[in-house]
Amino acid sequence: MSTLYVSEQGAHIEKEYQKLVVTKEDETLAAVPASEVTSVVLVGNVGVTTPAVGFLLDRNIPLVYLSSHGKLRGRLVGATARNIELRHQQYRRANDPAFCLAVSRAIVRGKLENYRVRARRMADGRPPTESADIEQAIDAAVRAPDLATLRGNEGVGTKAYFAVLRATLQHDLGFAKRVRRPPTDPVNALLSLGYTLLGENLFAALEIVGLDPYDGFYHADKYGRPALALDLLEEFRAIIVDSLVLQLINREIIGAGDFQKAQDAEHGVFLNRHGLQRFFHHYSARLNTEVLHPYHRQRWSYLKTFEVQARLLRQVIEGKLPEYIPFRVQ
Q1: 46 with 11: CB under 8 angstroms?
Q2: What is the CATH T-level fold of the domain 2-76, as seen in this structure?
Q3: Is the peptide bond before 182 cis (omega within 30 degrees of 0)?
Q4: CATH superfamily of 84-317
């Protein structure tokens, strides 16, 4: 089971029997059995027929729209059963400062501990000089008295981690620091696209278990922001997206020739068509990589692990688990 990415400009998705068929000017580019698709992502000027949309909605397969620059435009999902009592529990928990702080500490601790592991791996097993800052951030985060302080602790650890990542890049693509809106260089463009796709994966996982992806505990509520999906995203940033970006650049799978600058400054730097195809291929492979879950001690794909973490969070909300247990890489 995987995501169908379509970035060929001018292409269309059609439905033929139990398949999704991608065509362009009467040429078939791909034909995929619907049973193998968990979601569909359209990038830029890509169309989808009404029968295909109905087909996806009936099977509860999300249809995600990205701009040609990789920015999320929206998503279309079918009507699903709603566990209203679970949603009420979630909303009550989101209004409980003590509960929000406890879950947020766990989320940030998991994120920073994964940063620590990734930093050591990037430094060939030797603790880099920035490790002290990451360690201090972890120690401070578990004792943070409020969310504002916790966000400050996270910021310290994140800054130290990105210094290690920058030093590990083997090709100078202009990456000085994390810049989001817009990404100003190829590395930031890859990170932004990866985080967007990862957020969509976690959004879907939360919906599967019955939680509202928009009402979170760590990220502040803002109109249109899927705060809970962003909460879960934190612990997976380094191990899914950052490690993939480092691999793609250092192994020269993606290089400077796979990017272009937008005509307007608002959109910065983004992947061209060939770069997108490479990135989607490797991102999909990363999601299907099997890993040992540290809590359940079973091997699942990362895609399945997203759902497992969403279920752990649901159990905490329902009072069936005493605390949230973030996914920590081994």
Answers
A1: yes
A2: Ribosomal Protein L15; Chain: K; domain 2 (3.100.10)
A3: yes
A4: CRISPR-associated endonuclease Cas1, C-terminal domain (1.20.120.920)
Q: Is 110 exposed, middle or buried (0-12, 13-18, 19+ CB in 10 A)?
A: buried
Per-residue pLDDT in tens (0 to 9) along the chain, 330 residues: 578 888 788 888 888 888 888 888 778 887 888 788 888 888 888 888 888 888 888 888 888 888 777 777 877 777 665 678 888 999 999 999 999 999 999 999 999 999 988 888 887 766 667 778 888 899 898 899 999 999 999 999 998 888 888 888 888 777 777 777 788 888 888 998 899 999 989 998 898 888 999 999 999 877 668 999 999 999 999 999 999 999 998 898 988 788 878 766 566 778 788 888 888 889 988 988 888 888 788 888 888 899 999 999 999 999 999 999 999 887
Full-model pTM: 0.86
d(CA 314, CA 14): 36
Q: Which residues in the chain are classed under CATH 1.20.120.920? A: 84-317
